[in-house]
Design a protein that fits this description.
heterotrimer, A alpha/beta (198), B mainly alpha (239), C mainly alpha (212), A: 198 residues, alpha/beta, six-stranded mixed sheet, three-stranded antiparallel sheet, 9 strands, 30% helix, C: 212 residues, mainly alpha, 9 helices, 0% strand, elongated
């Protein structure tokens, strides 16, 4: 699904990662670990195609679903309209399933501006589902989510992986998702990479 | 050495100069010589133009401002051309020297545009009875001045050098299409008779006039290259 | 999708129109109420007012999306950035250019603009404001990363606006003098078509540069 070979990544002229190689298979999630500023976000932006790597090759699906710190939600539009907008652009599935998976059903007609930080985050993650993309690239997906909702996210991610999808995540906090089976396969350029199999 | 290998040699030299280190060493060596040459040419050109050329039959001594006005106007346009070519080469080949040449060309072009506008106004006052008229030629030079100002301001506003280089290059490319198409369109609507002047009668004097014009143009080029060189040295950023 | 984006730009819709109205109301107060003077300067001033009204909302075209991260998300979507630019410029035109073009002949009445000249005003704005939106959106892509880039944006965009202004106003002036105005109108159309052909690529490139 995703193959990265000999990748070097820089930000602002400073080399962050050097000669990183890994691959992610369908049904697999790769968790990037490392201190702040180590290059997790830059690596994810390279995979999403937002940034050009200094050198190396990335083989990824033509479109990937990317979510960063900023959710890119429009406050004037309702929760449903926000999702519909992205579903239209990606030509993905209808938003009903996404709404229910993150238990946003009763908020569907609320303007996104009225949501709490945690609810907005859930809406941002629900956006992943309406893209119909098989590869998810997530930068700190669980920020401002409580334990309950982290579990919800874990459930959705698991379903995504079981359906043949794959994901690359960056996070520097421990969350329950990783408690099950951790498979530390690689240690490169001070970024821990943890593979998580379903 | 036959002609093809010679031209190939020159071509190689050209791309060798695209290496920033080589270029800086080369331009640094030439800069003192060019500085003296500029003083010499500028001095002799201006003195020659102002004091040793005959008056025009109709315009009198006012015409002598042409030795400042025309070369400045030419340099104003050629500064844009240099900016355009430098930007294009940067976007295609990512060579820092070319984008620095474009960056250094902008203040030169802007100054020359200002000189051309000012001398034109001073010339125009006794000729047309007014310092300024809104005809297409003057207007397009004024717009070019604003465009240079915008290009320089965009360079100054963006912190990251590579981003600034890329964005200003895109602006320079687009500007050529939109800004320079404007005088062209204007002439379609308001054709102006060519405003030549005939101060000279015989062939010899005509030849002399051409030489004087070419000399003063060369002076302006020399001054422009000198300013661009000294600018690119001070604005250099290490990579 | 365009309409969604237009709705999304929210709030800017009436603003340009109100600004245009204010300019038109202030002109006779500044120039004096002499009818023949007003009719003389009306074409140029109406065009100038429309141009400034367009300029008002330019930095909002991409600014909000850049700040809230949705431009990043759009860049990773299957939609090319060139299409995003066209959609944005179209949304800007729908919320400023089109209402201005429709309102201009009505406001022209306040400036003693004749019926024929009002018609020419409407046509020239309909054909010319797409160029204003496209050029303005291009300028907005250039100044995306610049904080408080409003003034810089105006400096970059105004020289590029000049041809459109000259020929748009000329068409109306010719019409108000009872002359043929097809040539300047065609040139205005040519400018709009030229910008639609060239600027998407330049803007797509500028967006990519700013997002990396």
């Amino acid at each position: 699904m995703l193959q990265v070979s000999n990748l070097s990544v820089a930000r602002g002229g400073k080399l962050l990662l050097h000669d990183v190689s890994f691959s992610v298979q369908p049904g697999q999630a790769l968790v990037l670990r490392g201190a702040n500023g180590v290059g997790k976000t830059s690596l994810l932006r390279c995979i999403a195609g937002l940034q050009t790597p200094t050198s190396g090759i990335i083989l990824a699906p033509e479109t990937v679903a990317y979510a960063a710190h900023a959710d890119g939600l429009k406050g004037q539009l309702s929760v449903l309209e926000n999702l519909k907008f992205w579903a239209d652009i990606y030509g993905g599935p209808r938003p009903d399933v996404a709404l229910n998976s993150y238990s946003l059903g009763n908020l569907a007609y609320q303007p996104a501006a009225n949501l709490s930080a945690g609810q907005q985050r859930r809406l941002g993650l629900a956006r992943m589902l309406v893209t119909g993309c098989r590869l998810w690239v997530l930068d700190e997906p669980t920020v401002s989510l409580d334990v309950q909702n982290v579990a919800l996210f874990r459930k959705v991610l698991k379903a995504h992986l079981q359906g043949g999808g794959a994901a690359v995540l960056a996070t520097h906090i421990d969350f329950e998702l990783l408690a099950e089976s951790l498979d530390l396969t690689n240690y490169i350029a001070s970024v821990d990479m943890i593979f998580f199999h379903v | 050495m036959n002609s093809t290998s010679k031209s190939k040699h020159l071509w190689n030299l050209f791309w060798k100069l695209a290496n920033p280190k080589v270029f800086m060493g080369w331009s640094g060596r030439w800069l003192p010589w060019l500085s003296w040459l500029t003083v010499l040419f500028l001095g002799s050109g201006l003195i020659w133009g102002f004091f040793f050329t005959p008056d025009d039959i109709r315009q009198g001594s006012t015409v002598k401002i042409i030795y400042l006005h025309v070369p400045a106007a030419l340099m104003a346009i050629n500064g844009y051309l240099l900016m355009f070519v430098g930007s294009l080469m940067w976007l295609i080949r990512r060579q820092h020297v070319s984008v620095l040449a474009a960056k250094a060309a902008a203040p030169v072009g802007m100054t020359m545009t200002l000189i051309a506008l000012a001398t034109g106004a001073i010339w125009g006052q006794p000729m047309w009875g007014t310092y300024w008229v809104w005809d297409p030629r003057l207007t397009s030079f004024l717009i070019m001045f604003l465009f240079y100002a915008g290009y320089i301001a965009l360079w100054a506003a963006i912190d990251d050098d590579d981003t600034a280089a890329d964005l200003t290059s895109v602006l320079a490319l687009v500007g050529l299409g939109l800004c320079l198409a404007q005088p062209l369109c204007s002439f379609v609507l308001e054709p102006r008779p060519a405003s030549g002047y005939n101060g000279y009668s015989d062939r010899w004097n005509q030849a002399r006039e051409y030489f004087e014009c070419i000399f003063s143009t060369a002076v302006a080029y020399d001054a422009g290259v000198w300013t661009a060189f000294s600018n690119s040295s001070t604005n250099w950023y290490a990579h | 999708m365009i309409s969604v984006l237009a709705v999304r730009s929210g709030g800017g819709f009436g603003l340009a129109l109100v600004f245009f109205l204010i300019v038109v109301v202030l002109i006779p107060l500044g120039l004096g109420p002499d009818q023949s003077t007003l009719a003389l300067v009306a074409p140029g001033l109406l065009w100038l007012g429309a141009l400034l009204a367009c300029l008002l909302s330019l930095d909002r075209i991409f600014g909000l999306d850049y700040e809230d991260g949705s431009l990043d998300l759009l860049a990773t979507s299957p939609l090319p950035l060139e299409a995003v630019y066209i959609a944005k410029a179209a949304a800007h035109w729908l919320t400023t250019g089109l209402p201005l073009a429709l309102a201009a002949p009505l406001l022209g009445v306040l400036l003693n603009l004749s019926f024929d000249a009002g018609k020419a005003m409407c046509f020239s704005l309909l054909l010319g404001t797409p160029a204003l939106s496209l050029i303005g959106a291009f300028g907005a892509t250039l100044t995306l990363g610049v904080k408080r880039g409003g003034l810089l944006l105006s400096l970059l965009v105004l020289p590029l606006y000049v041809p459109t202004l000259i020929f748009g106003a000329r068409a109306v002036r010719s019409a108000s003098l009872g002359q043929a105005f097809d040539v300047p109108l065609i040139i205005v159309l040519a400018i709009s078509l030229g910008t639609v052909a060239i600027l998407p690529f330049a803007s797509g490139a500028a967006l990519r540069i700013n997002l990396r």
